Write a sequence for this structure.
């Protein structure tokens, strides 16, 4: 089986600057690079950047997959809208983690399958999950709970780890969260059992003042670029 790796980064809250684009192009001569994305696949060689650093510096969403069975998904969002304390109740292991830097929170989800995959295709996979980030910005915690279920499924949780709050709406995930669950290879039976303790989806109780402040900050950033 030949080697295949796929990398895709997306900038959502602001376009990349000319200087940032030059920095990205210095890392790859064959990647498809735009003011909002970096996409490349590798049948030989490997990525010359650092995905975690790039997420902290440039991008808001990231997807990686390899045909030996590794799937990685990352989202970056303002820590004013999702705190490290809230995320930390769900992100308790190596496979699902949260880190904070310069006012941004980065969530990282990793699924491993040693059996490998004969046929993999990365194009379009991240686009099908971008709305997960939108939900997190609105106060939807279902993506975090999917991460916690992944830790339970892979045996990463300790006996003393408490189950975090079960968010409403697990029984009606919708397309983006269903794509995320599939990408992370969540056991449908495990998800179905978890949904039995979940209320129907209702008001997420979003802090409108915090959202307004974030939107005004984005507008100010765009005027400066």
């Amino acid at each position: 089986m030949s080697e295949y790796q796929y990398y895709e980064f997306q900038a959502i809250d602001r376009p990349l600057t000319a200087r940032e684009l030059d920095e990205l192009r210095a890392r790859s001569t064959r990647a498809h690079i735009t003011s909002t994305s970096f996409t490349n696949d590798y049948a030989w060689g490997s990525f010359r950047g650092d995905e975690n650093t790039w997420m902290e510096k440039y991008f808001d969403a990231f997807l990686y997959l390899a045909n030996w069975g590794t799937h990685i998904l990352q989202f970056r969002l303002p820590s004013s809208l999702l705190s490290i304390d809230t995320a930390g109740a769900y992100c308790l292991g190596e496979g699902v983690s949260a880190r904070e830097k310069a006012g941004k929170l980065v969530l990282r989800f990793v699924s491993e399958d040693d059996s490998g995959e004969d046929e993999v295709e990365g194009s379009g996979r991240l686009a099908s999950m971008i709305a997960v980030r939108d939900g997190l910005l609105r106060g939807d915690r279902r993506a975090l709970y999917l991460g916690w279920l992944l830790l339970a499924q892979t045996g990463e949780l300790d006996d003393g780890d408490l189950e975090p709050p079960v968010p409403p709406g697990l029984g009606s995930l919708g397309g983006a969260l269903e794509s995320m669950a599939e990408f992370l290879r969540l056991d449908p039976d495990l998800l179905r059992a978890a949904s039995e303790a979940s209320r129907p989806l209702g008001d997420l109780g979003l802090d409108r003042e915090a959202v307004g402040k974030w939107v005004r900050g984005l507008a100010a950033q765009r005027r400066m670029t």
